[in-house]
Specification:
The protein is mainly α and 226 residues long. The protein has 2 domains: 1-111; 137-226, no CATH class. The protein is built from 9 helices and no strands.
Amino acid sequence: MKQIYRSIKYILLECLAIFPILLWLNTLLLKRFFDGYYWLLIPAVYILFSLVGRVLSKINHRVLLSILMTISLIFLLPLDSIWLQIIMLIILFVSSLRGYQYSQEDISDVLPIGHIWSFSLPSYFISYILYRGQTFENEQQLLTTLALILLFFLLFLTNQDHLSKASLVKRQMSQMNKKLKLQNYLYVFVFFMIMLLITRYNFIASGILLLLKGLFKLLGMGKPEE
């Protein structure tokens, strides 16, 4: 059960990591098919096939089941063209194969944390630039919310990974100071809350504006134009 929980945790992390790519596909190729609860379709496929993979061990059986189930799912979805069905079939099939990978015992190499830092966060940044304007207001909200959630989990997992490696080097994994662990988690949590406040309430811009007002007041130049 613990292994299943760990697999689901990393599946959700991967879905957060690939969200910008799905958003690009959704806008450019899928006519914004993913909307509302349909965004849960991809993680649901991941989790389903990660559970099925614990029962089926042969690769041929897994691939055959993926093809049959994804084709069946395509006919249940409200897709109005063959082109959309083909694209969704590819996306769901790849998602099912990735789900199988999370059914194995050791999933540390399935989703390296370093890859998420290297590729996912920059893709969020690029997406936030591309999806500016009132037309993409919903996409902006999704990007902001999911990026913060992803950053929160990344900080905790990276911190946990560093602590584990440090304890292994010192051969004191079972005797590691619990107070030190709690302090590290507290620092990560505080950093995340600061990032959340900055993003939500735009403290940086407000602070700069306040400093400028004070500076102009000291110089006797009156109130600066906003």
